[in-house]
Fold this protein.
Amino acid sequence: MTTSETEHETREGFIRGLGLLDSTMIVAGSMIGSGIFIVSADIARQVGSPGWLLVVWLITGFLTVGAALSYGELAAMMPRAGGMYIYLKEAYAPLWGFLYGWTHFLVIGTATIAAVAVAFARFTGILIPSISETNYLIEPVRIGSSSYALSLSTAQLVGIVMIVFLTWLNTRGLKLGKLVQNVFTFAKTGSLIALIVLGIIVGLVSYPEIAAANFGDLWTVRGSLANVDEGSLTAVAAFGLFVGICVAQTNSLFSADAWHNVTFTAGEVRDPKRNLPLSLLFGAGGVIVLYLLANIAYLVTLRFDTIQDISINHSSRIGSAAADVIFPGFGATIMAVAIMISTFGCNNGLILAGPRAYYAMAKDGLFFQAVARLNRFHVPAWGIVVQGIWSAFYVLPRTVKTNADGTVAYGNLYGDLLTYVISSALIFYILAIAAIFVLRVKQPDAERPYKAFGYPVIPALYCVGAAVILAILFIYQTTATWPGLLIVLTGVPVYFIWRRSAASEPAS
């Protein structure tokens, strides 16, 4: 690749406009959403003690940073648009790359965008009460006799408007998209740092007995415990604690997900052989450090049984509860603003990066051909639009559940789908890190500007650790995991249909 291509326009038409800071902001900004302000309460019920809560986040940190340090080898070796789709295709077969890209489009990327958009709307509702999931513009309409319905509430409308706006914005070019990403990532990182620093200071100075109670008895399992299987297993038993730690990873790993999204944009990163591995390290490593410190701040400001009860009362959130200790009476409002900033920046990163994978698939004849073209702003506009349409659709379907007292409760379809595919996403991550070993055998002479840190130990430990968690999920969370495999497998016939269609098209 020539110098002019590296600094300006590549042969494919992309503009290499992302520096190291921009790339790091995509990593960090895509990772930090609303999860860190919410899921620790659920984890506390699953593992039952402050020490094991921190262990869960430490395991997540090891897995995430270990994966990022390893993944950098693939990113520097193949610095072109597509990310994991490219790596799986090169290491195994085109089908494996397609299954990841298809699952990312079908659920992982698009349903996450929908979930983050509705989270933005929910917390906007704290400031503007008329924005609510129960304030309907169109009342829920049941789909036949199924357990599903369609509705449009003011919160759903705000979520859709957010998706439409960010979709439009990112079709206008990389420069505008990265500006929004950088501004909002700096803002939400600053908000999280402020919560951590003020929480630790206020907690230690004003409520030293809380820190003494939590850190003085780190390991005793107590309080309100959640079942960690589909029976009655809890963290009281040693094996139940082990299962609970593994099951809790679905919360913490999901909160730390999307760390690899920057590799979708590899074709737009300047000096990618250097900047991609560094951005993965700085972005993922920095966010994990903040996540660990945030949990320490929670344990300094809130009693552990209070944290556990928060996960039962979903009208409250652990981040809001901690903020209310720091700013009595104003915590919910302050945290609502912080999460609105966080989710807005998170969704911008997701909407910016994902279509680059669909672009690479379309280039191979495995997606809509319009997605393989760049617009006059040098971005895959049709890929961004198709992703936006599917994401916005996910905001509308509702799950319907009849309670014991006869009342009807409405959930969100995207929530169920994301629960199903978390385990399947972990399969793809294991395959991607294992691809380092495979490609060192298949392509021993390929240029590797960066080699996986700690190879072969760290990549192997990641694969083993993730595989153990995956096995526990499939054994003890069957209804939440096996459907995810079916979602992935829907891509098999689609792959062969698209491949046949591409083969039948006349050569240009």
Remarks:
- The mean pLDDT is 91.
